[in-house]
Please model this.
Amino acid sequence: MEGKEIHFNLNGKATAYKTPADWTLLRLLREGLGLTGTKCSCAEGECGACTVIFDGEAVTSCLIMAADADGHRIETVESLEKNGELHLLQKAFIAKGAIQCGFCTPGMLMSAKALLDKIPHPTEEQIREAMYGNLCRCTGYEKIVEAVLLAASGAEYDIEDGEWNVKEWPDEKQNLDK
Amino acid sequence: MELQYFEPLTIEEAGILAKEHPKAAFLAGGTDLLVRYNRHVNQFDGLINLKTIKDIPDWCEETQDTVRLGALMKHNQAACDPVVVKYYPALVHALEQIGTNQVRNLGTLGGNICNASPCADSAAMLTALGGSVILENGHTQRKIALSEFFKGPGRTAKEPGEILTWIEMPKPVQGDKKKFFQYFEKIGRRKSAEISVANMGVSLWLEDGRLKNAVIIFGSVGPTVIKVVNAEQELEGKMIDELDEPLLEKLTEEAIRPIDDIRASAEYRKQVCRAMIFRMVWELKRTERK
Model:
């Protein structure tokens, strides 16, 4: 089999691509479709940098053959920003300083989104459980977990000197700012 | 090397492809196969995708006496399945400790079994629950107990052209005087994304306070899962208070065949296996006193 014409829903858009048979989904996204937000790091499903959402579930795109995307719904980090407006999770990551080198961030965001899509108000334990598969070598885990809690809290944001800050805390979530 | 890729539509077609391309590998979840592929240490020259075959189930079926898990069920999917949650909480516990969330959303039960890794967490518990596998080649099907299925690291009783379709387990139907006890424990160096240093699955019946039909399985401490037959016999017909933990520990240590590897030494594995069987008995006593 030379290659395969696949049809799938990518970030809400019907997409067709003739993929070489030996490509992984990660390679298709990065090299075929130019969506380089999804990162390649370990290529063995350990680090989670290549996490995308596949039919609503967080998966490591390095462990999926591109041909297997046929007929499925895939969301990458590029889908988070809508009409120039960052996603609540992205704002929360910035407000909390949850990004250091940034290489793990796209995977972290997609694992967090898959969680929040299912459980809008997760506990800290549920967040840690859902994000075990995402490694951060700057070890900014505390701030990352705080950012997901913040995104789930419904806090409002303000922008000042190019930086996001929390404008208004929901009453019951005041303690998150500590 | 050029990788050939096939998408058969029937089990028979997959079997024919496998015979025509003896160096091709069956692809299910891909969480092990693609690691080897990405590292360029793959010993296969083709992939035969099983997910395009409608006859390989990815759902769970309950009959009068059995529960059947489809080979293409994902670990997370099986761990959330209401039938699995109802009858096999220890299996849920085992499945939840496999890899990471992302890997559990990809990896399949059938793949984990056919991969025949001695340390597979699902293998120990499914074997302990009395599981069998259904193998089909498009014409005939046969059933083989998991305790007979594993032949060595990466080797199984599966013939060329055969495909695992179901994992079948007896359904534990409990009564006032007949209780089912199941237990899973995994030892690793950290809590998540860890390959077992050792794991253990146990199931047994308590009838009028007496232990019956115990199955004690250890994983990651031998070339396949290890059934500790002597310890099983030691439990048969005993009351819980009559159990001799030091003897059970000794029988366990005699049965397992651990090796030194990158994850742990054989000596450490022996010690944790003794500790695990001790904790299992402790848990059994605790459950019974409730």
Observations:
- Chain B touches chain A at residues 2-7, 27, 29-31, 34-35, 37-39, 47, 49, 51, 76, 99-103, 105-106, 191-193 (CB under 8 Å).
